[in-house]
């Protein structure tokens, strides 16, 4: 395992609210509806961050907690209000499942969404599930962890004598999911299903003959919940990039007593060949990775394998045990900043002057103004990047700003705002 120096700089994570996970989950879990129990701030974030257009019909809404409601937020009051709202949702949308999304305000004033959900489930004849998605301690991708834990509470138990099968855990695009399922079928791996299932009425059965593997690195709470149900959890690299994807499938093959076929090595070589131009461009480039979506370690591994130098690496949350397989492939002696101090980190990056900085939206413009090319880390969340076939898309996302930065520097379009100003 790589020798990793971990420094925790701050007590809070700089990033989007965990409610951001609804952006991909309400599309992934078909027939679902997400009812956010929160404040006007929660509503504003969802409307602005997700850029809801007038022609769309998003399957999420906000039950707003007003300041005048705070003193009256007894269990009966919350139950009556949410009963009324869920009733309207059922009549208008007829969802197969409703998530009562717990936010920071709901958590602070102790709204018992768990009990309310159980009562409304009985009344409306469909799951009304409490999903803890508070942003007090988590970054935005970890909101998915809370939703998947909610789904686990209604997933069926596997029948006695069920064969040993694989469970894929994590929401990825349908194209990526189909590719992974197709590859596993070619490898002869029996698959139980995917969590979250596209149809929440067909959740995979879970029990001691289930072998679970995470498709995302930020699902530690869900994986621990699976362990408590007797599920065997595999420690695999996140399948992002050619080498990581090969090792992902190899670990699954060995878990099922199969010798990994040579075809996996061939598929990796083909993926590296497809991203040859991007790989050549990134060799020797100095890159800072200070994103906010917990994909920082897998991305750092890919860049290291492409020949780049990682000069700064941080993540909002680090779980050494859950991320052990990704940590093992990092270069020795690297320093990882957990919950970095945003000001101190910005000063470090400006001093380092990397060829590319992968960062959150809030830091991109300040870095660009100083002649530092950037890539928004959120783009990795919403773009298919897992598996062999999407390695090209991933490499192009990274190489594009480097190419742009080179061109702008050649033409003298970058102005270093940190340089001393000469009086007119």
Descriptive report:
- The protein is an alpha/beta fold and 424 residues long.
- The chain has three domains: 18-138, Rossmann fold (3-Layer(aba) Sandwich); 165-265, 3-Layer(aba) Sandwich (Rossmann fold), CATH 3.40.50.1980; 270-410, 3-Layer(aba) Sandwich (Rossmann fold), CATH 3.40.50.1980.
- It is built from 17 helices and 14 strands.
- The chain has helices spanning 22-28, 40-49, 75-93, 104-108, 113-124, 143-152, 174-186, 220-228, 242-255, 262-274, 276-282, 296-305, 324-327, 342-352, 361-368, 378-382, 391-410; strands at residues 5-8, 32-38, 60-64, 97-102, 128-132, 165-169, 191-195, 210-214, 232-233, 286-290, 309-315, 335-338, 356-359, 374-376.
- The strands form three sheets. A six-stranded parallel β-sheet has the order 1-12-11-10-13-14, sandwiched between helices.
- Strand 8, helix 8 and strand 9 form a beta-alpha-beta unit.
- Helix 6 packs parallel to helix 8 (220-228), helix 9 packs antiparallel against helix 10 and helix 11 packs across helix 17 (391-410).
- The chain is globular, with a radius of gyration of 23 Å.
- Mean pLDDT is 89; it is low at 417-424.
Topology:
Elements: E1 5-8, H1 22-28, E2 32-38, H2 40-49, E3 60-64, H3 75-93, E4 97-102, H4 104-108, H5 113-124, E5 128-132, H6 143-152, E6 165-169, H7 174-186, E7 191-195, E8 210-214, H8 220-228, E9 232-233, H9 242-255, H10 262-274, H11 276-282, E10 286-290, H12 296-305, E11 309-315, H13 324-327, E12 335-338, H14 342-352, E13 356-359, H15 361-368, E14 374-376, H16 378-382, H17 391-410
Parallel strand pairs: 1-12, 2-3, 2-4, 4-5, 6-7, 6-8, 8-9, 10-11, 10-13, 11-12, 13-14
Helix pairs in contact: 6-8, 9-10, 11-17
